[in-house]
Design brief:
Layout: H1 2-14, E1 24-28, E2 34-38, E3 48-50, E4 55-60, E5 69-75, H2 84-90, E6 103-113, E7 118-127, E8 130-145, E9 152-163, E10 179-190, H3 191-198
Antiparallel strand pairs: 1-4, 1-10, 2-3, 2-10, 4-5, 5-6, 6-7, 7-8, 8-9, 9-10
């Protein structure tokens, strides 16, 4: 019996799966998070803006993924299209009105299983002072001890589609597409370890 338990433990360690009390609270790392929004411009091109996050918290247990929660804040001050003039235009009142609404937020309300390493995460997205439900199609990339930081870490990708007019940002629709594609990649470190290593 002891031999079987030992072999099971060795197998877990060999695959890099960490044994931790669950659920784990993670701080999402802005340096390893991209929140990309893309749209169609008069049918010619599909520009993309990266907003990223200023702060984010994830509570996640691989054994009970549907009990997960996530809460993130995205600062419009960090909006980056790689075209400075476009960055400034998107922050003006005819679009996002960043002076009046400086952040976007997402707070989960429901998580459902959607297959192996797949989840549907529904939550309240607030943009331009308007809050609407949005569902993210999430892929669980990896949950294990970080090889360099030596602490529990978790990484995810997610996609969604929204209509910007639903949030009161309807300038130039339909020539500039109403549909906005969202693509997210993020990773987080166990909250206490993150604070110890990064001081926040």
């Amino acid at each position: 019996m002891r031999k079987i338990a030992y072999l099971a433990l060795a197998s877990l360690l060999a695959t890099g799966t960490a044994l931790h009390a669950a659920p784990v609270t993670y701080t999402l790392d802005p340096g390893h998070t991209m929140v990309l929004f893309s749209w169609n411009h008069f049918g010619y091109s599909n520009p993309t803006a990266d907003i990223g996050i200023s702060q984010g918290t994830l509570v996640y247990d691989p054994a009970a993924p549907t009990k997960a929660t996530v809460d993130v804040t995205m600062p419009l001050s960090a909006l980056d299209t790689h075209v400075p003039a476009l960055d400034e235009h998107l922050k003006k009142p005819d679009f996002l009105d960043a002076d009046k609404y400086p952040t976007m937020t997402f707070k989960s309300t429901k998580v459902a299983a959607a297959g192996k390493d797949k989840l549907k995460v529904t939550g309240d997205l607030t943009v331009h002072g308007v809050t609407k439900p949005v569902t993210l199609d999430v892929t669980v990339n990896k949950v294990a001890d970080h090889p360099m930081l030596k602490a529990p870490a978790a990484g995810f990708n997610a996609t969604a589609m929204i209509k910007r007019s639903d949030f009161g940002v309807g300038a130039y629709v339909p020539a500039v597409s109403d549909d906005i594609k969202i693509s997210i990649t993020t990773e987080g470190l166990e909250a206490a370890a993150y604070k110890e290593k990064f001081g926040k």
